[in-house]
Amino acid sequence: MTLDDQPSPASRTPQTLAIFDLDDTLLDGDCTHLWLEWVIACGWVDDGEALLARMRDHDRQYHAGTLDMTDHLRFSLAPLVGRHRDAVREQVDAFVASAVAPRLMAPGVERLRQHARDGHATLVISASMYHLVEPIARFVGADDALATRPAFDSAGRFTGEPTGIQTYQRGKLDAFAEWLASHETGFADGWETWGYSDSFNDLPLLEFVDHPHATQPDARLRETAEARGWPVLQWR
Fold first, then answer.
1. Lowest CB count within 10 Å: 150, 156, 217, 218, which one?
2. Domain map of the chain by residue range?
3. Within its chain, how far is the Cα of 85 from the centroid?
4. Residue 23 designated active-site
């Protein structure tokens, strides 16, 4: 998949919105974990094994629904502290092209692009950090992306702190509400909504949309989806 494959923006005002999670929904894997492997290879981390071991522990907590998201975000930002946003963005662009693109799940990306071809707006909302999520969302052709944003100092360097709404669990809906308030979408007039996620952590989002879909669902989400008659999709 390349940027040239992206659909053209719809020529008419959308009346339908499709919301996609990213990790294990469109991407086979977790972009934060993949990014940490990338920065280790860049030589930005002293003890790569310890970093990945802690990431695996955070991943277990995430799937159990017990992750302290502030702690996790600070952990994931630590290798970037003091680095300028432009230098990081250069590495992120290379990361998306080399490490992310081959792991995108083609049926999921095709579903997003079919929504776009049908004239629907498309939005990626992820618990991962914005400096990773936004370039990936743009690569697959989504109209916009929501994710927790990193803080920068006055010189444009990463401080290691997250800022704003944390797009985790119900925080995804909070970020979505803020996004709606800042866009002239006409959403309140009755847009139809579709949602796709792999994780029980996204249950608030899936309960919010008109057409929820469980994609490669974890055990708890699969149980919920089957009990409620939601479609279960396998894109991996």
1. 156
2. 3-233
3. 19
4. yes
- Give the class (CATH, top level) of 3-233: alpha beta
Task: Tell me how crowded residue 77 is: count the other CB atoms within 10 A of its CB.
Answer: 19
Residue 32 CB-density burial (10 A; 0-12 exposed, 13-18 middle, 19+ buried): buried
Alpha-carbon distance of 78 to 44, in angstroms, equals: 10
The residue from 5, 23, 57, 68 that is catalytic is 23
Residue 59: active-site member: no
Which residues make beta-bridge pairs with 127? none
- Determine how β-strand 144-152 pairs with β-strand 158-163: antiparallel
| C-alpha 55 chain-centroid distance | 17
**How do residues 38-79 score in pLDDT, each as one tens digit?**
999 999 999 999 999 999 999 999 988 899 999 999 999 999
Active-site annotation holder among 4, 21, 59, 144 = 21
